[in-house]
Amino acid sequence: xxxxxxxxxxxxxxxxxxxxxxxxxxxQKYVGEKSMPNLMFTGPAxxxxxxxxxxxxxxxxxxxxxxxxxxxxxSDARGIETVRNNIKNFCRLKPVNAPFRIxxxxxxxxxxxxxQHALRREMEMYTKTASFILSCNYxxxxxxxxxxxxxxxxxxxxxxxxxxxxxxxxxKHQKIKYEDEGLENIVxxxxxxxxxxxxxxQSCASEGEKVTEESVYEVVSKARPQxxxxxxxxxxxxxxxKARDLLKETMIIQGTSGEDMITQIYTDVSKRVYDGKMNSxxxxxxxxxxxxxxxxxxxxxxPRIQLEALLTKFL
Length: 315
Ligand SMILES: Nc1ncnc2c1ncn2[C@@H]1O[C@H](COP(=O)(O)OP(=O)(O)OP(=O)(O)O)[C@@H](O)[C@H]1O
Ligand SMILES: [Mg+2]
Known about the structure:
alpha/beta, Rossmann fold, Helicase, Ruva Protein, domain 3, Zinc Finger, Delta Prime, domain 3, 5-stranded parallel beta sheet, globular, binds adenosine-5'-triphosphate, binds magnesium ion
């Protein structure tokens, strides 16, 4: 297998984008009208924001899209200088054989506030000849005046069914062998992120092996949900030493990280409440302890010690 599958299977047209149906429908309207306002794409990682932006640009600008298109990744070029130089110079020129020019600013949430204010002025100045597409994970990091100048599109995580369908499509074309449980497990760990799903698939199949439930666990190095469940059940029933052993086993043998472990504990506990297997008073106490532990681990405390201390709260 040569090269990353995420790139090989990046959809080239709006129709090929998985999920995001209502967004694509709204965007098709702009294509029909050959005009568009400034757009803001926001949502979690790996759900098709950049892909959609590029596909839209190609469709709406046609054969001359390259000449009329400027792409800047705000994570690399986040300062005010970029806005002043690159964007200004590009916007000053007339569109070439196209109705307008498009500036695509990826990952704008990494732009400084000063640069955002400068950008706001550029957006106002060139409304006739240029449109902007801004993409970000957190729209709350974008200053209000920019948000109010954009039509906002909120991208959702990719649902399980669509993800499985796409993974099967890739497996078919790459001749990857799989078991359904393997793909289901990928979906479980990808948490709606298509990029992550395809990357897990590629790692599992890298040596030509079959994708199975087990091979997915090995690749993601996360704990098996049933082990986490048993660990919590043991702690809740008062068997601290058994819970501690299970924790040690997953973290040392499977190499599960502290961050992953705490997230999986959270998932398990939430499911218990949801299924009516834990009463809400207990949950309220536990979630407080889980939040504390999560914070400390992320601040750099020793994860094993923090997680063991957390297990004592379950007793
Ligand atoms: N909706 C989708 N349909 C099909 N493939 C997708 C979709 N979303 C993501 N992918 C796959 O994941 C890869 C990354 O997608 P993309 O770059 O569009 O994500 P993004 O939403 O811009 O993420 P980020 O917030 O990290 O920039 C694509 O190359 C493609 O292989
Ligand atoms: Mg992106």
